[in-house]
Structures
1.
Amino acid sequence: MIHLTIDGRSIEVEKGTTILQAARSAGIKIPTLCYLEDVLPDGSCRICVVEILSSRGRKSLDTACTAMCNEGDVVETMSEAVVDARRKTLDLLLSDHNNDCFACRANGDCKFQDLCVEYGVEKTSYPGEKNQSVIDDSNKFFTYDPSKCILCHRCVNTCHEIVGRGAIDTMNRGFQSVIGAPFDTNWGESSCESCGNCVQACPTGALTMKRRKKYRVNQIEKKVLTTCPHCATGCQYYLIVKDGKIVDTEAANGPSNRGLLCVKGRSGSFDFVDHPDRIKWPLIKNKETGEFERATWDEALDLVASKFMEIKKNYGPDALAGFACSRSPNEDIYMVQKMVRTCFGTNSTDNCARVCHSASVAGLAMTLGSGAMTNPIGDITQNADLIMLVGSNPEEAHPVVGMQIRKAVKRGAKLIVVDPRDIGLAKKADVHLKLKPGTNVAFANGIMHVIIEEGLQDEAFIAERTEGYEKLKEIVKEYTPEKVGEICHIDPEDLRKAAIMYAKADRAPIIYCLGVTEHSTGTEGVMSMSNMAMMVGKLGREGCGVNPLRGQNNVQGACDMGAQPTDFPGYQKIMVPDENGELVPNEPMFQKFEKAWGVKLNRKPGTHATDCFPKMISGELKGLYIYGEDPVVTDPDTSHVIKALEKVDFFVLQELFMTETAQYADVILPGMSYTEKEGTFSNTERRVQRVRKAVDLNALHPDYDIRLDTDILVDLMNRMGYPQPPVTSADIMDEIASLTPSFAGISHARLDSEEVNGQGLQWPCTSKDHPGTPIMHVGKFVRGKGWFYPAEYVPSAELPDDDYPIILMTGRILYHYTTRAMTGRTPELMEIEGKSFIEMNIVDADKLGIANGDKVRVSSRRGSIESTARVGTKVSPGETWMPFHFPDGNANWLTNAALDKYARIPEYKVCAIKVEKA
């Protein structure tokens, strides 16, 4: 340890600690402008200068961010020499600074301004020529004004070292230096992702969000800490409120985002809240005209309750179904499944995990005992020696995770990318296995073949903690690199290299996403991921694990809360095997919930969401309630979904907007967004975090008549004959905790407490003093012993033929989220990317006479759409890729509803199409 004195205080620190770090650890303030946490100090601003008297008697002025603590140092942070040096530095910076503070968007929120005031520097002593570089206003969301730039490099270091994009740099030299994009391109034409992290890092008004025109710091009414409503990373940020409206966001230093946000979180998470498209009051469809008409809440709720109870009386409880919303809070989802079970009298409740990660829930539960991410995001990005990324494009689908992976690679972590496309991270990969879509099981079996062949399996781990190894070992014996190379269309040597790298790395997580799950063999693909990890003992410890990145903000929570036809909240099973292996009702579980809810429950498993649509068409399912989902846009084979919704007798939708699905509803109940309610979301790493109310639209708009979603559900339940008392969101979480062992220690009060300190709690959290569980399966798997599932490769359900010779894959892009209900109402995002496109390989395009930018017709056995060709080499010959966000060419008119046998998840990632020039 090192001993030194700072401002007369004796301090002990570890060797390698800077003076700035030592001072901060002791609560001593040293001002900075260029300094960034966790980045090699720049030392360029020189504001953090301190006076150091060394043990040898040498006195010097040094920058505290770069100077290391030495034994016996005596440091003064506010001596006369230090203050004078800081004043001179500020004076020099001001000499080339546009100090029109009154007109500056950063006025009152500028660290440079604050320091000038603190040190009494009102004007420069060095008048003269100033930098005349032009303002760059080309980015859709922010502006760069060189006249206010002090060249502290915080923006550059943020982009290079923290975000890992490297889109900007310091251009030119000396007096002509500016921040900009390479090759004299402007910011709008650069590789900038518009995440805005550089803007939040800027200590002056050089980089400012354009929306800052609408407010100044002194006009802020409040800042409300909440959780992002987009992907399941669970980023924490503040909603900034002025005059009752959200005007901006500000990243918070949450456990999963570490002060970062993506373009959607920073700029696409609040414009929709007070958008004129909001449904403003209950609507009932006039059966004669087909038009929606305004109704009172009593009219709407009485109609809904009477119709559902009439269907139940005439056709039985299983003629009804209700879907929860994976974007809504846990408390709302819990009440939906409770309503379906207690009022409808059926277990036919589900959520959109059915079409994205139900294979993860089912697969990991079978092999490990828990269907969730095993390790925290920070652990698998900061502690990993190697990352294996399978069927996941986090730079676009989970951008803040993508940023952290880029940072991991920059610090030296190896990267294996297994993906059919040349995604951005493939450029940084040590190995890119550009496999044929639908061949994940063959790939995994090939990896394990090489591991065994090389003797790299963890025999002790296998013997002590697993079962089923010998059977799997026999299967993978056949999957030689050469055979797998033929199946997957990859180089066998690359497979060997990847297998050996993964097996030999000490800490190596598998991170996967929908490229693994959304297949007719998706559950077996997931189990193959856990097979690989178990074979080399990379489970139950830091920097390892099997880690599905969940797609939506609370799709993890939707499964946790029991919005599944086979599970009560907390994955407590409806059916369990008896002594003969036959599935029978889980009587102790039924008795527990019947006692708590005071009603007899249906003993039969419910119908999965993807199986509900065929039942609507056949007439078995007569009534449907959906909260906040849009299956017309998101589910495969759109024609099939529309046919089902047109056939069902009575359909109720609880929504914010008139979505494409809403057109088919009989009654629409207007609810509230995440900004208008209290609650919790569970992110992809099982972390339960708070959602907090920031605005009240009814107060802003006296003509609005929207209601809190849980209040709507409570009223409906009472009208259907169930005596549900009024409850707050906190009350609901308390009920969840009382019935769900893995949530027993979670409450709103605890999440808001100093003990938790904004870090959330990761389930299992089994008591009020339990700290939560960051890493699963430490020492023992939840199911006891981990099971090696004997997976064999089975081709996709629909393969190319002469009529439809090309494979289509689907997915997300950076600038939009699922159906664009939120992001589509941010004009700038639509300007950046607002229309359908299809990625094609140049070989296929040349054969078909299609050029980049051409309009094309894309057809499958289920439908036909128009789109725009993007020709290149991102996809392999014979393969294409489309997003499903855009109504001018939604890929789900084409996709195949072939279902996985375990999870009933559709095969979005492989269907056969043909492409023609339009």
Note: The chain has 30 helices and 41 strands.
2.
Amino acid sequence: MNIYRNLTVAVFALATLGFQAMAQTFTGIINDENGAPMEFATVALCTLPDTSAVTGTVTDIDGKFEMTGQGDLIQVSMIGYRTTVLPVSSYSDGLVIRMRQDSQMLEEAVVSASLPKTELKGDAVVTNIAGSVLQHSGNALDVLGKIPGMISKDGNLEVIGRGAPLYYINGRKVTDNSDLRNLMSEDIKSIDVVSNPGAAYGGEVRAVVRIRTIKHQGDGFSFALTSQARQHLYNCKDFEPSWSVLDLNYRKKGWDFFGKLVYWNQRGYQISDIYGGTVVAKDYGIKTNVQEGDLDYRGHNGGFQYVAGANWQINDDHSLGAKVELSDNNIGNSRLIMDDDVFTDGVKIDHVYAVNDSNDPTNRNWSGNLYYDGNIQKLHINFNADFVSGRNDRSTVVNETSWATPAYIESGSVSKTDMGAGKLILSHPIWKGTLQAGAEETYVYGGQVYNITKIEIPSSDFNIRENTVAGFLEYGFGLPFGQISAGIRYEHVNYDYMDNLDSRNNLNRVQNNWFPSFSFSAKAGQVGFNLGYTGKTVRPRYSQLTSEITYDNRFTYQTGDPKMLNEIQRTLSLNVNWKFLTFTGMYENVQNSFYQKAYPWNDDGVAMIQYANVKDPLNKLCFYLNASPTIGVWHPNYTIGIEQQFFKTAVIDPRVEGGTRNIDLDAPMYLVQANNAFRFKHGWVLEADYQYVSPFNQLIAEIEKPMHNLSMAVGKSFLKNDALNFRLTFSDILNRNVIYFRTDYGNCFVRQSNDRFSPCIQLQISYRFNSADSKYKGTGAGQSAKNRM
């Protein structure tokens, strides 16, 4: 425990350091003509006689600014407003500056407002949404797929080269997609895409997206409702609501009482052609087993989420709040049918018809957050405490009929996980910038009991205990030509695995890691660039650490590995922006990368596929170029890019001398994404989006055929302030988003095509009444552990 105590004392001591020098700290508020706070106004400290800038900053969502330095003049500027200059000698604490509109500049700004201007600001690629063609693009998820720095992969949004991001709305961490589904594009002011987040964001956060909304007063009662219904095409007959989100808020005298109800009803479909099997060494030579046929999958998942909470804005410097959430997944079932022929050494020996029914009767998670956010003079304090408690019950029945050896296999599992976490972040202005320091502790306790009736597959009963203590320091300051920030994060992880059936498998492991980060941003004329370096980690999901063995078919089983190590990632990135062009380049080195390997399970040719760490380093490169001009009513957003991995490993293969062989997989992925938006009068928007993805390698898998995706959408806004919105989307019109892949495990191989019937028509309706910004400032703690759960 000494390490925890020493770490906490050191972090807090550094965070509260004062800085005694000749420099002066300036604070104030910038308002518009009506007295409303102005976000993103530029405030600079200048010297005489040449009025050169010594330091500068931009105002936050409340119009507040803070900067430290020595100078003679304070200069405030904003597009569409007259520049305001006042001498430092007239400065006083609590300064409030009211800007005046410049009619000529305002007219010019209105003319160019159809362009979602993208530029580099500090560590982020920032796209302005308000007043642009993207202002009427549906909800936040629809908008995010159309901005520079973001791409869609297999229907999921990713930051280029960095994977799925962590989302923030006005500084509040987004805990699930329902917040993004119910945030309409008309309420979004701007979006920041951060591809190299610093030490404050945590060792596993690879990318961050910060969304800022248009400020609303919203006193009294307000609500927002968004619903979507979906009709699948091609052999799928359902037409039913797929999800709905209802947000409620009541605001009175600094108090907010809020609630949320989320309903989801998702169906999944897939038909596959599969050719797979195993090879095993025998006394007479190599025996090859092959199972070839069709797979038909149908899944249904549904439930409700309930959120309730309160927020108290005590004054401009202090706020606190709490919320609790219940996620109740009360529908979770699937049926998988396999109709296969079985061959041994090219001779058909059997025909198998297998029905796999899976049911999750209980999948319930409770979670909660408590936060405080405030200022004591110049010291900013943010504290969060979180808890999560979840349970999942699953039962599976496999009924195989065959010529030779029919089988009836039952299995069941009960999983429980509890998490508690606390995080404290302190920030204080020092010299020309701000020092941030923080500490975070997360405790996770989980377990699983698994039973199966197939004799040769063992049951399992285990517990996992993990305690993570982290501390970080980060300092950033502005220069006349740019901005520099650097940070360091330390994480100490104590991991225990306890096998309740065989104590010989027990494991204790302690890991200590340092994760540095650095960012330098500058601007020369119309060219802006950002150079960044980060060290990050990825910890195995708890499902990858399980010792549970699942039955795929008579030739393959799957399991995890409690001994898996954490991935360590080191990334160097470069972003360059000029007018409507944005370039992103990235190099990444990964140690202990996760993948699946195979090894012989028995002498009959059954192979075990297991999660493991790659022994050799995995290197990745990616380069992307985005163009987002505006041509009349047409706003194209085109992205071209290449991603390439350099993956090598050894696989077990009895067909070669020595029993192992090396494989190298480095086929690059080429991507073309062409998003087209047309904005017409009376709130009409038409969109046509196309994406092409070439064949490529992804870890040990090979994508063998290109994928195409063509989608179209039409939207219309009604009522005052665009309160009512309709959006009709036709996804994957060509039905060409089919995945063809093969995997070479050495002694085990599979080639498969997955058609998920993705063509569908979606109708989305949204209505907002008396829109109110959430004043809840809880950022959460233990996010990494939540994701793994």
Note: Residues 1-22, 105-116 have pLDDT under 50 and may be disordered.
